[in-house]
């Protein structure tokens, strides 16, 4: 705690300094384009946008102006990161051009225009990646008897982050995928809402979610952002009204065929006296002869889930860094930050997420859904008796259009 108190002022000073550096470059480029700009005219709106996201969070639900400021601040996160990466080499190039005797039209204009063009390409590409979800298909064997069920088709999504940026328009893409693929079961692995529940309610996103249908039901777990919003009970009630059951350290058995367990997010460990159950205690009461599907928002301690008896672990949270080069960081932070890994007898899947946090920009990452077919090879019958619909029972273990990292 003492280290954190010491580090926070240093982080704030560093952030302010980097913003001044970015602002200085931006003002210089704008003045090259349009002429002198008074300091107050530039710096006041610039700093409002630079700190717009935390300001908007403090005043959440306070009206359209603060919502707009929060959205602008979210997109500024991407501008900030790429500004820190692109501006130093651009400034060096500008200095070299000036030392070589070139005028401002070259030593300011050329590097500045180059940075602007790169940013434009990154933002356009990142927006396309964010708003055009792909569906990754996995066909996985589970050597258990599922009550005569030959296979189970699951449509899984994590990190919808429904809020001021990701809304009904993107959510309808999920509805369309579910209607087209007709899964037997839908699983939502946390961060369905983006902190504040107000835009979720105001835009009636619960009604849109209510259009999701699957014969075996729709189940969800909480992510860290539901905890950050502090309105979990209101969200759980809205989800229930939409036909979605949120599992909070709970497990259910579906038609005597398979079991679904959902953990509270790791954030719960510091959110109150109830905390969250160890995965071993959560799965201990379950029947080990039946398939066990586990959702845990953050992909941590995967080996413990495998030892506890999970056959499938579904997680999200990482966004695969969302925009490069952040994926290099998540790769170091998590045993599995995206894709598939076999751990003992357990299949682990981590989704990069369907929505976005902060700006709707993805680079080296895509908005995605997971279409998972579990084939139960321990069943005495290969046909799909009593199965309400979905994938046909299959043969050997394969991964289709998915990323594999077998241990």
UniProtKB/TrEMBL annotation:
Coiled coil: none annotated. InterPro entries: Calcineurin-like_PHP, Metallo-depent_PP-like, Metallophosphoesterase_sf. It holds the Pfam family Metallophos. Signal peptide: none annotated. Residues 380-407 are annotated as: Disordered. It comes from the Bacteria. The keyword Cell division does not apply. Keywords: Membrane, Transmembrane, Transmembrane helix. The chain crosses the membrane at residues 5-24, 36-56, 68-88, 108-131. Residues 152-320 form the Calcineurin-like phosphoesterase domain. This is Metallophosphoesterase.
């Amino acid at each position: 705690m003492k280290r954190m108190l010491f580090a926070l002022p240093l982080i704030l000073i560093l952030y302010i300094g980097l913003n001044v550096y970015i602002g200085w470059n931006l003002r210089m480029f704008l003045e090259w384009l349009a002429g002198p700009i008074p300091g107050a005219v530039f710096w006041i709106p610039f700093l409002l946008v630079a700190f717009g996201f935390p300001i908007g969070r403090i005043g959440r639900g306070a009206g359209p102006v603060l919502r707009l400021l929060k959205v602008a601040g979210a997109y500024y996160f991407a501008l900030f990161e790429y500004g820190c990466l692109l501006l130093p080499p651009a400034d060096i190039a500008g200095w070299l051009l000036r030392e070589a005797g070139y005028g401002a039209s070259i030593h300011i204009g050329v590097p500045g225009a180059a940075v602007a063009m790169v940013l434009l390409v990154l933002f356009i590409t990142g927006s396309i990646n964010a708003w055009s979800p792909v569906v990754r298909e996995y066909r996985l064997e589970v050597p258990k008897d599922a009550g005569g069920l030959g296979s189970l088709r699951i449509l899984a999504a994590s990190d919808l982050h429904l809020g001021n940026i990701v809304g009904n328009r993107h959510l309808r893409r999920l509805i369309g995928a579910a209607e087209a693929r007709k899964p037997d079961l839908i699983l939502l692995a946390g961060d369905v809402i983006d902190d504040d529940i107000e835009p979720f309610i105001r835009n009636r996103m619960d009604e849109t979610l209510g259009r999701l249908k699957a014969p075996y039901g729709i189940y969800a777990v909480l992510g860290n952002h539901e905890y950050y919003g502090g309105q979990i009970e209101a969200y759980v009630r809205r989800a229930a009204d939409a036909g979605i059951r949120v599992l909070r350290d709970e497990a259910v058995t579906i038609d005597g065929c398979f079991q679904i367990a959902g953990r509270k997010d790791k954030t719960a460990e510091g959110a109150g006296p109830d905390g969250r159950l160890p995965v071993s205690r959560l799965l201990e009461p379950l029947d080990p002869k039946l398939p066990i599907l586990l959702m845990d928002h953050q992909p941590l301690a995967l080996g413990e889930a495998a030892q506890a008896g999970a056959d499938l672990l579904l997680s999200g949270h990482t966004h695969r860094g969302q925009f490069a080069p952040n994926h290099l960081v998540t790769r170091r932070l998590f045993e599995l930050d995206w894709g598939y890994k076999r751990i003992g007898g357990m299949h682990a899947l981590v989704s990069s997420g369907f929505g976005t946090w902060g700006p709707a920009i993805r680079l080296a990452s895509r908005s995605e859904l997971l279409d998972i077919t579990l084939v139960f090879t321990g069943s005495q019958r290969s046909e799909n008796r009593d199965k309400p619909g979905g994938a046909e029972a299959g043969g050997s273990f394969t991964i289709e259009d998915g990323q594999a990292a077998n241990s």
